[in-house]
Amino acid sequence: MNVSRNILLTGYFSRMFWYSVIIVIFPVIVLGCFSYYKSSGIALQKVNEGSAQNTLQTELRMEQYLKAVDAASMQLVTSPLVNNSLDSELTYKDFQLIRDLREYMQRIQSYELGIQDIQLINTGKRWLLDNSGMYRFEDYESNLDLTKYVRKEKNSFWLASFPADSGLSTRGSRPALQLIRQLPLNAQIPTMFVVVKIGPGEINKYVQNADELGGKYVLDEYGTVLIDPSGEWTGKNFPNAGMLPADMSGDRPSEPVLTDFLGQRVSANFVKSTYNGWTYMTLVPVVKVTGESRAIFWITLFICLGIMALAFAGVYMYSKRLYRPVRKLYETVKGAALSAQDLKKQDEFQYIGERIQNLKMTQHELEDQLQGQMGQLKDYFVLKLVQGEVKAADVAENIRRFAFPHQWKTKAVLVAQLDSLEHTRFREADTDLILFAVSNIVSELVPAANRLSPILIHPSQVTLLGSETEDREEFKNQLYQLAEKIQTAVRSTLGLPISLGVSRAYSEWGDMPAAYQEGLEALKYRMKTGAETIIFIEDRQPAQRVKPYYPEVVAGGLLDAIKLLDMDRAYTLLGQFIQEVFSKESSRQEYQMSLARLLMELIDLAQQMGAALDQAAGRSRSLFERLLDMNSAAEIERWFREDIIGAIAAAVEQSRASQDTSISEQVLRMIHEQDDHELTLEACAARLHFHPSHVKRVFRRDVGVSFSEYVAGHRLLTAKKWLVQSEMKVNEIAERLQYNNAQNFIRYFRKMEGMTPGQYRELHKEWS
């Protein structure tokens, strides 16, 4: 759990993880929000469509009823009885006409129409007639507001009548809806009004206030509320008249409008009637619509949360998997385990980039240093080459590595020596400086394509020259011309005479040691030729005498392997030595000289190790006599293996055995005396001046366990002793015993003892 928390703190992992989370979760959140709002919008749209249709149906039902009442009233105003009464001053004497009018009026007031009352108001003849009877106009004139009944543009219209302005009523002041008709028709000044009154309950029957379809409102042409769901605003001006569209077309639902009404957000649908100018309105609270989509919201939310949880887990696992190689690389570059604080502060790639930059800078510095030392390395290689200390297999590789010419067909060695410093400004102490100057002159005069690096081998300056020509005479002429240039340049620059010895021409790199010796040999003829001469060895020694071949590198490796008792390698190198000696075309005497030289070196090694080779080989004949009598390479190799190398190895083993006991004892003493210091096998071997592998092998053989196991066991015993006999804390014990930290010490102690150090201390306190 701590590892996961630490990983989340890392700069790169944190960015990769949270960026992936955002990429995965953001579309889910957007999709969830879009789904919810889209479903809410669709639900609101469906409700609006239903509400618009319901509003239109309400208008149609209401107008169908109003038009039926209008048609009935039309029958009344067009009847002869009403027309005859226009100019009649009705009195009690006109009883029959009054009765006929009332009967006709009552006949119109059918149950289906729900007409509450019909009034005939004759302002010209000053009388009133309704269902209750006939009255004098003067008795009710003060209660009538006839200005509302007069409209020049219309002969008939609907008028809302509420208690405050109910007009003439003999049945109390109940709210009513009035249809007003003016007579005579098309008159400038009407003299009679036919008033058809309808109770509020009749029109409410045609309005369905279903909750799911919103509240229904009916407003007259003046904005007075005729019908509202609560009845609170009936007879009053509509409280939010500004929400009404100004461009409503007749008998068609307008576009739904989202607005605020009485403190809540509503969706409003409107229909404007062309019949009477009334406005039919349905208000649907948005909260009801969204409340219906609440289930969709919760389902969408849970689905999104589930997807987000799965995405979170998947992103974490995948990011952790992707981060693992980055962390390993970071820890490798860092070079130590990372703490949470390090992880939190540093960005891995930034740190890796900085380390790589540092490595590149270090590399450039090393390259600069190496470039500065390349000249010395080249000189060293040439020195080892002319001394025969480079393996034949390594020559070509080093030639390419140092960018020396490698296509030469012929090669030779030019050796220059000072003839004399007498009568010059130089002294013997200046010899090295003079040779160095000669070497610089050679470097300038001889093209790099025809030479290797000039070197100094006191008291000589040596240059290895070559050419791509195979003509030995042509190559000799080139060498002579170069030698003359060098002599002339040294004479003119330093004022000193020098002589140059030139070897024979060779084709193999392995012949360079012999060529160097020939150059030195040629200079010995100065006593005959005099100073400041150029001497070719082949001119002084026409018959070439080849020095017996002796593979010094292989012989040296053979002696080292015997000293280290690495017998497998020693026998392998012995076979390689015999094979290389006999692979050269030489005389029997030359073969014997090479083998005798190896025997002399082995005898010298045996004397150093205290081995008696004469006893091993038999005293009757000397070792050299036996070697000279052998006739085959296999016999010679077997004799060297069994009688010579075997005897030396036995002596070395016996000498080492006596040393090994001392080695183990000294290592044990170091462990016991320095248990509170960092102690390694390499450190012990360095103090004893032995190879760590040898000390490791001897210690395991004598003690029975490895060095590390013994050190760990000894420190465990020391820790147990300190836990029982001292009051040191566990952290102090771990630190003194050179554990990396207390946790490593506690884990090792528990593994070996089955309990923690604290439990071990408490247990022994109870026993004591």
Describe the structure.
The chain is an alpha+beta fold and 768 residues long. Among the domains are: 371-540, Alpha-Beta Plaits, CATH 3.30.70.270; 658-767, Homeodomain-like (Arc Repressor Mutant, subunit A). The strands form three sheets. The protein has a six-stranded antiparallel β-sheet with strand order 3-2-1-6-5-4. A five-stranded antiparallel β-sheet has the order 8-7-11-10-9. Strands 13-14-12-15-16 form a five-stranded mixed β-sheet, with helices on both faces. It starts with a helix and ends with a helix.
Topology at a glance:
Blueprint: H1 2-9, H2 11-77, H3 80-85, H4 95-108, E1 115-122, E2 127-130, E3 133-136, H5 137-140, E4 156-161, E5 176-183, E6 192-198, H6 200-204, E7 215-219, E8 225-227, E9 257-261, E10 264-272, E11 279-285, H7 286-292, H8 294-334, H9 340-345, H10 348-386, H11 392-401, E12 410-418, H12 431-445, E13 455-457, E14 460-467, H13 472-494, E15 498-502, H14 512-523, H15 526-529, E16 534-536, H16 537-540, H17 552-563, H18 567-583, H19 588-609, H20 613-617, H21 623-629, H22 633-673, H23 681-688, H24 692-703, H25 707-725, H26 730-736, H27 742-753, H28 757-767
Parallel strand pairs: 15-16
Antiparallel strand pairs: 1-2, 1-6, 2-3, 4-5, 5-6, 7-8, 7-11, 9-10, 10-11, 12-14, 12-15, 13-14
Helix pairs in contact: 2-7, 2-8, 8-10, 12-13, 17-18, 18-22, 19-21, 19-22, 22-24, 23-24, 26-27
